[in-house]
């Protein structure tokens, strides 16, 4: 059996409990340390945060501050700001990573694949030709080539320019 040493995953495994009383998406913006929480942009109703367990470099999420699980429950102002932040995020990702493609997704409910179904959030991922190369296909391993801290610094600066 092959083993992959991935000590950074322990934080995810240890935090993957059924305790829904604390929402990481509600708690992260309360702490004003955006660098520690990897919050790259704050709006009035929504914010942009790096995904702690990214699929690709630059994997971010746009989400409202308000704890809601259904898109239909968002106020008009919040919905509009989420959409504007998605556009702003695309510009920032293009400035930093120059990806030829971008995935945007919203999973409403755990049956739809939402890891944290209680707090609605959009995923935005830069994509490149061949980013599903032999590593995930043959080895079952995804390679993330840049640290979250390095990505945070680049995107934080790019959001200032958008």
Write up what this structure looks like:
With 162 residues, the chain is an alpha+beta fold. The chain has a single domain, classed as HIT-like (HIT family, subunit A), CATH 3.30.428. The protein has 6 helices and 5 strands; from the N terminus they run αααβββαββαα. It has helices at 10-15, 24-30, 34-37, 76-97, 134-139, 148-161, and strands spanning 39-42, 46-50, 60-64, 101-106, 122-127. The protein has a 5-stranded antiparallel beta sheet with strand order 1-2-3-5-4, with helices on both faces. The mean pLDDT is 86.
Features:
alpha+beta; HIT family, subunit A
Topology at a glance:
Blueprint: H1 10-15, H2 24-30, H3 34-37, E1 39-42, E2 46-50, E3 60-64, H4 76-97, E4 101-106, E5 122-127, H5 134-139, H6 148-161
Summary of the model, kept short:
The chain has six helices and five strands. Helix 4 (76-97) packs across helix 6.
Instruction: Sum up the overall morphology in one term.
Output: globular
Instruction: Classify the oligomer.
Output: single chain
CATH names the topology as HIT family, subunit A
Using the coordinates above, name the CATH class.
Alpha Beta
Based on helices, strands and strand pairing, what is the structural class?
alpha+beta
Give the SSE order as H and E letters.
HHHEEEHEEHH
* Unreliable sequence segments: none
Query: What is the number of E strands?
Result: 5
